[in-house]
Amino acid sequence: MATKETVLHVTEINDPALAHEIWEAYKGSFADTDKMCAQDQICYDEKTMTQALSDPDYQKFVLKVEDHVVGICILTNNLMKARIAYCNDRFLRRKFPKYVEEGRFWYVTAICVLPEAQQKGFGVELLRSVCQFIFDTKSMVSYDYSFNKNPWLTGLIQKVGASLGWNVVEIPLDKQCYTSLYYSHNGLPS
Ligand SMILES: CC(C)(COP(=O)(O)OP(=O)(O)OC[C@H]1O[C@@H](n2cnc3c(N)ncnc32)[C@H](O)[C@@H]1OP(=O)(O)O)[C@@H](O)C(=O)NCCC(=O)NCCS
Q1: Chain centroid to CA 8
Q2: What string of DSSP letters covers 20-78?
């Protein structure tokens, strides 16, 4: 039987069971990031995630396979609320004043697919729905991600946009560099 995936686009999720399932999918999706990511990729705890899910200032895209939540994308055009994902709202306002003022600038605070469901094409379906929303609302979108983990992410989003007939142009914003130093006479750090 063919796998059936669906993407649910809603502005409010108030069902505690669904909110908990989304939280579990979010937490599980980033379980492998401790091996690769200097920045903690988990910016919500269950309480703040549940608040965001019930908050209409965030758009929610919930990816389900066979009626189980396997992925989520949440984004907001309230840049004070986007700060939870460590972005600088003042920078974004200065850089894109018109889009921000008009509520057409969205920041993705979470996008993920459970590890066991990754690389099966489900992420593309999730991105397709989000790209469609950005297109329909004549908006633009911004996000941050781990380059160690997902160096291909922007290329993938551009490919999804191209498959829908749109030229998706990147304006790079910054690169936050995480590094470390040690003194060689102390031996190689382990
Ligand atoms: C980003 C993410 C949502 C993609 O979801 P996914 O379900 O794995 O994506 P898909 O299976 O639809 O793959 C889409 C494309 O990306 C490519 N891809 C996916 N994972 C890849 C990997 N680890 N390395 C290289 N390419 C990869 C696939 O090959 C595919 O390309 P194709 O269409 O040319 O074949 C998923 O990897 C994820 O949840 N990552 C962890 C969370 C995260 O880091 N989120 C981003 C920052 S918040």
Answers
A1: 16
A2: HHHHHHHHHHTTTGGGT-SS-S----HHHHHHHHH-TTEEEEEEEETTEEEEEEEEES-
Q: How confident is the model over 127-163, as pLDDT tens digits? A: 999 999 999 999 999 999 999 999 999 999 999 999 9
Residue 153 CA, ligand 1 centroid: distance in Å: 7
Domains of the chain: 5-186 (3.40.630.30)
Reduce the DSSP state of residue 172 to 3 states and report it: coil
DSSP-assigned letters across all residues of 97-162: HHHHHTT-EEEEEEEEE-GGGTTSSHHHHHHHHHHHHHHHTT-EEE----TTT-TTHHHHHHHHHH
Q: Are 107 and 142 in contact (CB under 8 A)?
A: yes
Give the amino acid at 33: T
3-class secondary-structure state, position 8? strand
- pTM for the whole thing? 0.94
State which H helix or E strand residue 7 sits in.
Answer: strand 5-10
Ligand 1 mutation pick, 113, 141, 157, 160, max ligand atoms within 8 A of CB: 113
